[in-house]
Amino acid sequence: DADVTQTPRNRITKTGKRIMLECSQTKGHDRMYWYRQDPGLGLRLIYYSFDVKDINKGEISDGYSVSRQAQAKFSLSLESAIPNQTALYFCATSDAGTISDTQYFGPGTRLTVL
Amino acid sequence: DQQVKQNSPSLSVQEGRISILNCDYTNSMFDYFLWYKKYPAEGPTFLISISSIKDKNEDGRFTVFLNKSAKHLSLHIVPSQPGDSAVYFCAASASGTYKYIFGTGTRLKVLA
Fold this sequence. Notes:
The structure holds two protein chains of two kinds.
Chain A: E1 4-7, E2 10-13, E3 19-25, E4 31-38, E5 42-51, E6 54-57, E7 65-70, E8 73-78, E9 87-94, E10 104-105, E11 109-113
Parallel strand pairs in A: 2-11
Antiparallel strand pairs in A: 1-3, 3-8, 4-5, 4-9, 5-6, 7-8, 9-10, 9-11
Chain B: E1 4-5, E2 10-14, E3 19-25, E4 30-38, E5 45-51, E6 56-59, E7 62-67, E8 72-77, E9 86-94, E10 101-102, E11 106-111
Parallel strand pairs in B: 2-11
Antiparallel strand pairs in B: 1-3, 3-8, 4-5, 4-9, 6-7, 7-8, 9-10, 9-11
């Protein structure tokens, strides 16, 4: 079973719709992250959370919000989707107890906003 | 401003030869670097890392070199195998921030 899961894997929505992407992990990690990947731009950090009560904005948080419902769950919401939010979205986790802080990624959600 | 740059979008190498992927960074506060490999329809997977206290780290066929004065790191894959064909991302972090800045990726194709 995958340690970091994302739902849905693919989603097509229309401009102005609210959409939520969900991430769950069984790794027991405290830190969770949301990234988006665009062609030619690599992975950019949207939001990150170091524990349930800690939420931080990343490089490109405008137009997004997050919720850390539990240690294992971190959701990303687009309140009113727009076409330039079409991208591949990845959730990642890391272990606060290690120095290396290697991040482990989910399989991604491909979002298309028409 | 791109703090981590991978200037080669793609690279083709013959099977059995060496693959060299390059990464440059601008922020002198970065002191921990990782390489990730990404196959289509999958998330990135951790490959190898290096701390700024070292200039080389090896793991099997993969070696990462760090040149702090040049703010440059490279990933060497020897020998290259067709299964190494993927997109490779380098990422950099500054101590205590626990977040990474990723490069734009290099697509490696290993030809059989």
